Amino acid sequence: MKPVIAIVGRPNVGKSTLFNRLTRSRDALVADLPGLTRDRHYGEGRVGGRPYLVVDTGGFEPIAKDGIFHAMAQQTLQAIAEADAVVFVVDGRQGLTPQDEIIADRLRKSGVRATVAVNKAEGMTGDSRSAMLTADFHRLGLGDPCVISSAHGDGVVEMIETVLADF
Ligand code: GDP
Ligand code: MG
């Protein structure tokens, strides 16, 4: 079975950009995925010969109680429930936000395997700024973050290998 990896995080952190980088075929084989909700954005990818499925989700807006943001939060929670692992994307340029802490809390309570991906860090992987980002987002209590750039590709293969190492 291919592990199902859900990409979550608040709006605009780069989830869809990461999804596009992690998948070759978008919306592939959705009809062949028993048990998975069909109204989400699924894709397939492969690294080092290992296949995986990725789910993109809408923005997570956990504070709103109704309306579109609530619906998106529900969709994200459903994606988390269906996933074998979660990549929790945060914005390395903005730093840690209160919304990130709320999402992290949800993830910790859900017990799902979650990897924090500190995005928008192009050119920073492997230098002191990367170490500062790692220390900052370590406070989310979800282990060692991976520092990546979804737009440029820095750190993305290492991140997905880290996620897949658990399976
Ligand atoms: P989503 O709302 O979380 O799905 O975020 P998107 O993937 O739509 O990206 C939101 C914005 O962030 C877009 O303008 C992207 O081009 C930008 N973005 C995404 N990834 C990166 C990155 O690695 N570096 C930079 N500098 N910008 C990024
Ligand atoms: Mg998106």
Task: Explain how this protein is built.
This protein is α/β, with parallel strands linked by helices and 167 residues long. It has one domain (4-164): 3-Layer(aba) Sandwich (Rossmann fold), CATH 3.40.50. It has five helices and seven strands. It has helices at residues 15-22, 67-82, 98-110, 128-138, 156-164; strands at 4-8, 25-26, 41-47, 50-56, 85-91, 113-119, 146-147. Strands 2-3-4-1-5-6-7 form a seven-stranded mixed β-sheet, sandwiched between helices. Strand 5, helix 3 and strand 6 form a beta-alpha-beta unit. The longest helix is centred in the middle third of the chain and has 16 residues, at 67-82. The protein is globular, with a radius of gyration of 15 Å. The termini are close together. Residues 27-32 have low confidence and may be disordered.
Helix and strand sequence: EHEEEHEHEHEH
Structural category: alpha/beta
Basic shape? globular
| First-residue to last-residue Cα separation | 10 Å
Q: What is the average of the pLDDT values?
A: 85
CATH architecture: 3-Layer(aba) Sandwich
Put simply, the count of helices is 5
CATH class group: Alpha Beta
The percentage of residues in β strands lies in 15-25%
Subunit structure: Associates with the 50S ribosomal subunit.
Function: GTPase that plays an essential role in the late steps of ribosome biogenesis.
Organism: Derxia gummosa DSM 723
Protein name: GTPase Der
